[in-house]
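SEQUENCE-TO-STRUCTURE ENTRY
===========================

Subject: a protein chain together with a token-level encoding of how that chain folds.

Sequence line: the amino acid chain in single-letter code, read from start to end.

Question of interest: how does this chain fold, as expressed in backbone structure tokens?
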Amino acid sequence: KIINYINKNQPDVIFLQEIQIDFNKSPFSQVEIIKEKISGYKYSIHSTIYPKNKQKGEEIKIPIQHGMAILSKYPIVNSFEYYLPLPENETEPRSILCFDLDINGTIHKFANIHFTNKEEIAKNQLMDFLQLMNSRNEKRIMAGDFNMFDLPQYNDLIKDYELSFNYKNYISYPKDNGTLDYIMIPKSYKFEKLEIIENISDHNGILIEIS
């Protein structure tokens, strides 16, 4: 479904979370498998956040490399991964995949997000990352699974950004009839279009157009 959607709609940049390399099943990562079946995406990053020793509660022979990825039609000129503080009693590390693209001679900065699935922790992780961006004197287009059902309530926290949900209400997590996935864009950009992609994963995909 993901491959068919990409081939049909050809978005410029694709953000993916929970991407794996499972050597128990294949010598190739999921990103490599996707790239083999699509055209036009020369550039990619696949980051491993942590090794999974169990899959669906069962022990596995070789740990699965679990992480995040991006696919891009445009050159990646810089990237880094920011590991978020691991709260007490949390066992799954979280990071933010930051990358810069050269789009027709202009550098645009992005961040692929997947926060912890506890709202207060997710809020603190967002604050932590915004502080990092402030220390770097930059703002990034941020997209992914924020694991926060009501991010608009923190509009004061994200006042320097435009939020996808404020542009257009939508459901991204059908199981709970709610929204966990967002795009935040610096106010130098503008939303032009937002489309929900249903039945593609346990989360709905989000396709946006910005200028």
Observations:
- The chain has a mean pLDDT of 94.
